[in-house]
What does this fold into?
Amino acid sequence: MSRRPARPARPRTSWTGRGDLTASLVVIMPLVLAYGLGVIATGSISVIDVPTRLLWRACHRDRELYLLIHAGLAAAYLIWVARRARRGLLAARVVGPLLLEAFVLALALLALFQVGFRRGLPLGSLGPIVAALGAGLHEELVFRLGAFFGGAWLLARAGLPSRLAWWLALIGSTALFAVAHHWAGEPWSLVAFEARCVAGLAFALIAWHRSLAHAVYAHTAYDLLVTALR
It folds into this structure.
């Protein structure tokens, strides 16, 4: 009597999407350092960037101490990348296509809002370049990595079915992304809220189906384009 072949074990669900989260963090770190240097040069800090504000206050607004801390972060980052043998992730053959794809996605999103909302509604930071860098970076870390990925994981741990947890986290993080901009001081309008919900959904799907790094750089590219076109 022949035995049925054993079913292969189901792979564990990844709550960070299809991309490699560690690889994303490696590729994102240069943007973190560039933004940190930009803060020193301009004093412009993204509204949602609480860690940098706290660090700046802890340094008593001492630029040299702040720069020294970032130099330490850069050194630790380079040592970590070398020990983990992740240098290849920073090669032009890897970063180049990622940045190109992110730029194309940003252009597509910009075109969508120019045509769909007929008002060219800017979704990113309207401040200087440094603020645009900070918004693209920190909003993705907060709303996609934290609220979307982290929220889905927490809801599943609480006992909800995985699919339901994913959808609730997607919808919840998208709504929070839209509300946060008005909470930060932007005047309320239904068009602005709807547009930000669409943007939040787009960045969440990019983060899930491509990677967190794709979402960060697409968001940053979008904000930079909006800033340049003002």
